[in-house]
Design goal:
The protein is of the alpha/beta class. The protein has two domains: 3-13 and 249-375, Aspartate Aminotransferase, domain 1 (Alpha-Beta Complex); 20-246, 3-Layer(aba) Sandwich (Aspartate Aminotransferase, domain 2), CATH 3.40.640.10. It is built from twelve helices and 13 strands. Strands 1-9-8-5-4-2-3 form a seven-stranded mixed sheet, with helices on both faces. A hairpin with a 2-residue loop joins strand 6 and strand 7. The protein is globular and about 70 Å long. The model has no long low-confidence stretch (mean pLDDT 96). It binds pyridoxal-5'-phosphate.
Length: 376
């Protein structure tokens, strides 16, 4: 085959083949493009009722959703929030931005989620909340976490950005937090281009989030502010995409899980790589992305493997870089001399292979073939 014609297999290609175009055109034709448009409410209502929460507050991205959640709970200077070190910067950043202190626990070597058995030892009189994050499509073991939270009267901020439609013991992810958040970035199961949502059953918290999202404008005296908020609103254009995506949610989830099973089938006899758990005692893997962890016996780390796959036109992403190893947090004086060996190993040896909904079976087979070649 002519090498120049070999298409790059991108790490993520979204599927926009439903009514996205129709709904977007409707926004343009009606002139409703701002956050005041009708799709925003429709998206909030459909999404929150699908997950099973009373209130949904749509925002401009998942990071903003985390920031509002932390703010809405009144967390601030002197407070501590416990979260996994193996996660995205957005989680710890939301805590640091309000002047609070992030306190981390290591990952579980098999599930890659936070090791919930390490939480209790990290609780102090300053701890205000726990922030579980469902990593790469496998839910966190919530029962022990919720038990610790209730015994110590801590709030729970659930980051379900990678867990659309996933269940823990039959109950939807996104219903476990006092506030739960989702992201709709294009690599997420449901996308709005950029977007996020906060879910809660607590009316007061919902009102707090709505106000903070909208610059804390007041109803009676619009341009007089008691508090500083943010402009984190979602536009009608984004919500229009979201409404079209929601119609395909079940199909998308089935497809991801089918892709996960196929990759597992194709990869399972390759020596030297560890695959994601297809299920645990409490949840099935939704395979939001398909991660692999290279054994040290391969003599390769993730960076080298990513380079080799890139030369063969296969897109990849590294695993998360742990929060306790972030230069920005070291400079701020957090996590001094702390070490979390599981997360450090995942960061060094882990990567994910193309996992977007637009990927074909042939592409998946070719990804595996190249992995096999590289690993000899
Ligand atoms: C994507 C993601 C976010 C952030 O969402 P954005 O919409 O990209 O800001 C937060 N948490 C987790 C776990 C994510 O995967």
């Amino acid at each position: 085959m002519d090498n120049k014609k070999v298409q790059f297999v991108s790490v993520n290609l979204p599927l926009l083949d439903g009514r996205e175009e129709e709904y977007l055109l409707k926004c343009i034709r009606t002139g409703w493009i701002s956050s005041e448009g009708p799709y925003v409410r429709e998206f909030e209502d459909s999404f929150s009722s699908k997950i099973g929460c009373r209130f949904g507050i749509a925002v401009c991205n998942g990071t903003a959703a985390l920031e509002l959640a932390v703010r809405a709970l009144g967390i601030g200077p002197g407070d501590e929030v416990i979260l996994p070190t193996f996660t995205i910067i957005s989680c710890a950043a939301a805590i640091v931005r309000v002047g609070a202190t992030p306190v981390v626990v290591d990952a579980d070597p098999k599930t890659w989620n936070m090791d919930v058995s390490q939480i209790e030892a990290k609780i102090t009189s300053n701890t205000k909340a726990i922030m579980p994050v469902h990593i790469y499509g496998l839910p966190v073991d919530m029962d022990p976490l919720l038990d610790v939270a209730s015994r110590h009267q801590l709030k729970v901020i659930e980051d379900a950005a990678e867990a659309h439609g996933l269940k823990y013991k039959g109950r939807n992810c996104g219903t476990f937090g006092n506030l739960s958040i989702f992201s709709f970035y294009p690599n997420k199961l449901i996308t709005t281009g950029e977007g996020g949502m906060i879910l809660t059953d607590d009316e007061m918290l919902a009102e707090r989030c709505k106000s903070l999202r909208n610059l804390c404008f007041q109803i009676e005296r619009r341009f007089v502010h008691e508090e500083l908020g943010y402009n984190y609103r979602m536009t009608n254009l984004q919500a229009a995409l979201g409404c079209a995506q929601l119609e395909q949610w079940d199909r998308f989830l089935e497809r991801k899980q089918k892709m996960g099973r196929l990759y597992t089938q194709l990869l399972k006899d390759i020596q030297g790589i560890e695959l994601p758990l297809p299920q645990t005692g409490y949840a099935d893997n939704g395979f939001w992305v398909y991660g692999i962890v290279l054994d040290e016996s391969t003599g390769m780390d993730a960076a080298e493997m990513m380079g080799r796959l890139g030369e063969l036109k296969i897109g990849t992403r590294p695993f998360f870089w742990p929060m306790h190893r972030q230069p920005v947090f070291e400079k701020l004086g957090f996590f001094q001399n702390e070490s979390y060996p599981v997360a450090e190993r995942l960061a060094r040896q882990g990567l994910y292979i193309p996992s977007g909904l637009g990927l074909t079976e042939e592409q998946m087979e070719s990804v595996v073939k190249k992995l096999r070649e590289i690993l000899g």
